[in-house]
Amino acid sequence: MAPEAGAGSSAEAAPPVVPVVFRARGLRKVYAMGEVEVVALHGVDLDIAAGEFIVLLGASGSGKSTLLNILGGLDVPSAGEVAYCEHRLDGAGEAELTRFRREHVGFVFQFYNLIPSLTVRENVQLVADIADDPMPVDEAIERVGLTARRDHFPSQLSGGEQQRVAIARAIVKRPAVLLCDEPTGALDYATGKRVLEVIERIHDELGTTVVVITHNAAIAGMADRVIVLGDGRIQRIERNAHRLRPSELSW
Ligand SMILES: Nc1ncnc2c1ncn2[C@@H]1O[C@H](COP(=O)(O)OP(=O)(O)OP(=O)(O)O)[C@@H](O)[C@H]1O
Which controlled-vocabulary keywords does the entry list (predicted)? Predict the structure, then answer.
């Protein structure tokens, strides 16, 4: 808990100080393609507080996935600094990044990447087996509403259900951070909303810091803050006065 300012005095209590978990300064990413250099990030400065729900918007090619991948330790910047709490991620070696990801980050991608020959339960178990302090596998499956389907194989599930398995797999290790790259990109309207509800519930019930990339500007209503990227730069950051539930969004 943050200390209360002015305790014991007549001063009004200051709003609670929420610790910053991600801190990026001058983040730059350049991809070398033979003779050609593609600058994906042009010097991004960003703080993300513990428990924030961030939506990352921007045109195709604006650098959203590059930024998310660097925050999640899947990639490293070409220049600049990025840290998660006390972990410096720029300049970290592969082993250090692997440990960081394993201990702190759950990923959800547009495509679910489940193992087809394993059941729902076994897909989630696989991650629980290598986690330090996993939640019970059945609890993770329950949190995404798939208890009745836990012995089914991915091919027996709809796209939205497979995405919910991917979310169960991401959260079973109790990550402090959930990074989602177009989690509803392959889903229809109703199914996409159901997946967003699951992500919202994880955020609200577990206090997970969440970053969601989307092309769908309506989803921005779910966020505490909306970060709009353009051409590798943060174009603007908007704070929502209050977050909307997925059921309140329409597109
Ligand atoms: N591995 C790579 N090699 C070369 N260039 C890359 C690579 N990954 C991304 N880029 C380039 O970096 C820029 C930013 O890409 P990025 O995928 O981060 O954008 P994005 O906003 O996530 O796009 P989209 O919405 O289409 O997924 C683009 O110009 C892209 O072509």
Answer: ATP-binding, Nucleotide-binding, Transport
Token digits of residue 192: 């996409």
Residue 7 covered by a domain: no
Q: How many residues comprise the chain?
A: 251
Q: Does a structural domain hold residue 42?
A: no
Domain count, the chain: 1
Instruction: Assess whether the C-beta atom of 228 lies below 6 angstroms from ligand 1.
Output: no
For the stretch 118-177, pLDDT in tens is 999 999 999 999 999 999 999 999 999 999 999 999 999 999 999 999 999 999 999 999
Domain presence at residue 67: yes
Measured CA to CA, the distance from residue 48 to residue 110 in angstroms comes to 23
Atom index in ligand 1 nearest the CA of residue 62 equals 21
Contacts of 66 (CB under 8 A, 6+ apart): 29, 40, 41, 75, 232
Domain that holds residue 208: 50-77+93-248
Ligand 1 centroid from CA 208, angstroms: 26
Query: What's the pLDDT tens digit per position in 72-85?
Result: 999 999 999 999 99
| Ligand 1: centre distance to CA 248 (Å) | 31
Residue 1, pLDDT score = 41
Are residues 101 and 93 in contact, defined by beta-carbon separation less than 8 angstroms? no
Q: How far apart are CA 245 and CA 222, in angstroms?
A: 6
Q: Is 61 in the pocket of ligand 1 (CB under 6 A)?
A: yes
Q: Looking at residue 163, which CATH number applies to its domain? A: 3.40.50.300
Closest ligand 1 atom, residue 29 Cα = 12
pLDDT per position as a tens digit, 165-213: 999 999 999 999 999 999 999 999 889 999 999 999 999 999 999 999 9
